Amino acid sequence: MDTVAYIRSRADSLSQTEAQIAKYICKHPQKVSDMTSSALAKELNIAQSTIIKLIQKLGYKGYTDLRIELARMPNKTQEEIHNNISLSDPLELVATKISMDNQQAIESTCKNINYNTLEQVIVAMKNSNKIILLGIGASSLVAQDLAYKLLKLGKCAIHQTDYHSQLSMCATLNRSDTIIAISHSGRSAEVLLAVKEGRNLGATVVAITSNSHTPLTDLANHTLFTVAEEGLLRTSAIASRIAQLTIVDVLFLGLIQRESNSLELIERSRRIIGELKG
After folding, report:
1. Is residue 154 within 8 Å of 126, Cβ to Cβ?
2. Residues 212, 232: Cα–Cα separation, whole Å
3. Which of 82, 217, 263, 271 pairs with 188 at a CA distance of 20 to 30 A?
4. Angle subtended by helix axes 48-57 and 16-27, to nearest 10
C-alpha cells in the first residue's frame, strides 16, 4: 500500500481537522514532500502542533519521515475519483482496479477474522429469539442481505430501512435477542442510538466495522472487523461493502453448519419459490 493509500485507509479514525490535513496531503503529495511542517501549517491555517500530532497518529516518527515517503511516490497528475482510479482510466482498467481492490478487501478481511469471536457470534445468533439488523446507507443493503439469508433458516431476523422503525424495534428487545450493527466507520449516530437502547435492555450486540476504537465497538459484546480501503471522500462504498458481505456470508454458512435442519429449510424455500417459475 502506498503512502497516500495508507493515509486514506485511516480516514475514519481522524478528527475533522486531521481529515482536512490528510485530504490536502493525499491531493498534493509531491507538493507536501517539498514543504516544511510550518509551511504546511500556514497553507492550511492550522496550528503546526496539530500537523505534528497527526503525523505521529499515522505512525510516522516525524514530519521528515512522511516527506521522504511522499517523495518516493511516482508523480500522479490525474485526479482520482475512487482510490487509485482516475478520471482518464479506460473502463477495462477501471474494472481491473476494482477487481483488485475487492479481492484485497476479501482476503484481508478473512485473514483478520478472530474465529473465537466468530464462533461466539454464531452461537448467539443460533440461540436468539429475534435478530435485529442495523445499518444506514450502503451498510443497510448488507444488513438486508443478512436478514434475507437468516429468514431462510427460520430465524426471526428483521431489518427496517426506516430509522424510526429501527429505534422502535430496539426498544422492544430483551436478553434473548441479538443486535447485529453494521457500520464501516463505527460512528453512525443513528446506529449508535439504536444499539444503546437495545444494549440497555439486555440484548447481545454484535458490531461489524472497520475500526477498533469507536463508540460502536465500545458498546458491542462482540466485534468482527472488516479490512477495506476507502478514500477520504468516498464516491461510494465499494470495497467496504464487499468486506462486510464477506463477513455476512461467513456468518450465514457457519450458522447453516450448526443448525441440523438448515438444509431442509433452505430446500423448502427453494421449492416454493420455484413454483412461481413454473
Report:
1. no
2. 18
3. 82
4. 80
Task: Read off the amino acid at residue 277.
Answer: K
pTM of the model: 0.71
Q: Are 265 and 154 in contact (CB under 8 A)?
A: yes
HSE (side-chain half, CA atoms, 13 Å) at 146: 33
239-258 vs 91-111: helix crossing angle, rounded to 10? 40
pLDDT (tens place) for every residue of the chain, 278 residues total = 578 877 877 777 888 899 899 989 988 888 898 889 999 999 999 999 999 999 988 888 889 889 888 887 766 544 554 556 767 778 888 888 788 888 888 998 999 899 999 999 999 999 999 999 999 988 999 999 999 999 999 999 999 999 899 999 999 999 999 999 999 989 899 999 999 999 999 999 999 998 888 899 999 999 999 987 655 444 457 888 999 999 999 999 999 999 889 889 988 888 888 888 76
Q: What is the CA radius of gyration of the chain?
A: 22
Which H or E element spans position 33? helix 29-33
**Of the candidates 157, 166, 150, the residue with the CA atom closest to the CA atom of residue 259:** 150
Encode 139-176: b = buried (16+ Cβ within 10 Å), e = exposed.
bbbbbebbbebbebbebebbbbeebeebbebbeebeee
Query: Distance between alpha carbon 212 and the CA centroid of its chain, in Å?
Result: 11
Angstrom CA distances, 37 to 6, 34, 49, 262, stand at: 20, 10, 9, 60
Tell me how crowded residue 264 is: count the other CB atoms within 10 A of its CB. Answer: 11
Distance set, CA 81 to CA 7, 21, 62, 126, 156 (Å)? 16, 19, 30, 42, 40
